[in-house]
Design brief:
Layout lengths: L8 H6 L5 E3 L8 H9 L4 E4 L5 H11 L4 E6 L10 H7 L3 H4 L16 H10 L3 E5 L5 H9 L3 E6 L2 H9 L4 E5 L5 E2 L14 H11 L4 E4 L5 H9 L4 E4 L1 H4 L8 H7 L8 E3 L7 E3 L3 H6 L11 H15 L22 H16 L5
Parallel strand pairs: 1-9, 2-3, 3-4, 4-5, 5-6, 6-8, 8-9
Antiparallel strand pairs: 7-11, 10-11
Helix pairs in contact: 2-3, 3-6, 6-7, 10-15
């Protein structure tokens, strides 16, 4: 027997069949995954924060039709980030890995600007989501004029209200369980962040737009619970990392399936930003947070030579093994099959058909 979702505001907003958003995980997702999720009825996402405008256009063209979300960062670049102390600490590993410090640094994680805005105007995706707040009003206006729905990311009720006041069409409520970077942007201590099931109902009560729950949702039980608490949709990342379409390394896949995936920590060691990952040698040696790491995103460039040298040996000692707290709940299956399976199981739970 077919059933409808209890809240169709988000699906109606972006034009997808199921209220499941594949998280835009930079470095781990390409057009193949987004295309598969769209084909299965979800909202596929392209991460655009670490690629060029030309690459973003090419990826969007590869995805083709259907409801697509393009995701961008809108952080402020640090003005006086000093890498000296952090470089000195990392030098302790030079003898083991012989990093090449003469190699070009990786591209800087650039905030959303004119060039990427022009990409949005050309692609005209169903949605554009922003991490770390919003870009300036003029750019947001151009995004909205392209026909895209604007989605913001909140880690607190205050951030959700801020985003709603600035006209976001939907708001991601990101709990502390989420893998990768926390999208917080209003002044707050990381230790004060809320878990997803405390955050969802408070955000849903505070704003009138659809709420997308993100963080620690790895199976149909999490989807159903989020919707019972007031979410109109869920955004799932770690669940899709297990899919064959994921671009992560073999070492990352192995870590996701290991006992260590039950012990994820919020760390600043890899980029300078607060992000959840599976512990590796660097975290075990230095602890998850260190004040010597330059501010986000400059920390990524400092550790890049060591990361490249270790990865060449198949060693993830300095690789950010991003993962949310839901990794042990996830299953490995193609992205389209996963989307359909999760949707069917969640609908069964919500409609009392689960056995």
């Amino acid at each position: 027997m077919a059933h409808a979702w209890p809240d169709n505001r988000f699906t109606a907003l972006v034009g997808c069949a199921h209220p499941i958003v594949q998280a835009p995980m930079a470095g781990a997702v390409g057009p193949a995954m987004a295309q598969a999720v769209i084909a299965a009825g979800g909202l596929g996402s392209l991460p655009c924060g670490m690629i060029t405008p030309e690459k973003a256009l090419a990826d969007a063209a590869t995805v083709g039709g259907g409801p697509l979300n393009m995701n961008f960062f809108c952080h402020s670049l640090p003005e006086d980030s000093d890498p000296t102390a952090w470089r000195a600490m990392l030098a302790a590993y030079d003898a083991d890995y012989a990093p090449d410090y003469s190699a070009p640094p990786p591209p800087v994680r650039a905030p959303f600007g004119e060039a990427m805005c022009a990409v949005v105007e050309q692609v005209r995706p169903a949605a554009v989501s922003f991490h770390f707040g919003l870009p300036d009003e003029r750019l947001v206006g151009r995004v909205r004029a392209s026909g895209a729905k604007v989605i913001g990311n909140a880690t607190s009720v205050a951030e959700a209200v801020w985003l709603a006041e600035r006209g976001c069409d939907a708001i991601i409520a990101q709990g502390l369980e989420a893998g990768g970077h926390a999208g917080w942007f209003l002044p707050a201590h990381p230790a004060a962040r809320l878990g997803i099931f405390a955050l969802i109902p408070q955000v849903a009560d505070a704003v009138q737009v659809p709420v997308i729950a993100a963080g620690g949702i790895g199976d149909a039980r999490g989807i159903a619970a989020a919707m019972m608490l007031g979410a109109s949709a869920v955004q799932m990342g770690t669940a899709y990392l297990h899919s064959p379409e994921s671009l992560i390394s073999a070492a990352h896949r192995k870590a996701l399936a290991s006992e260590a995936a039950r012990r994820t920590v919020a760390t600043n060691l890899f980029t300078g930003g607060n992000a959840r990952a599976i512990p590796n040698r660097l975290i075990d040696d230095l602890g998850p947070v260190n004040g010597a790491v330059p501010a986000y995103p400059d920390g990524a460039a400092v550790i890049a030579p060591l990361r490249r040298a270790a990865e060449a040996k198949g060693d993830p000692a300095f690789t950010p093994l991003w993962s949310g707290q839901s990794a042990p709940l996830c299953r490995s299956m193609p992205a389209a099959e996963l989307t359909r399976t999760l949707a069917g199981e969640a609908l069964a739970l919500l409609n009392g058909d689960a056995r």
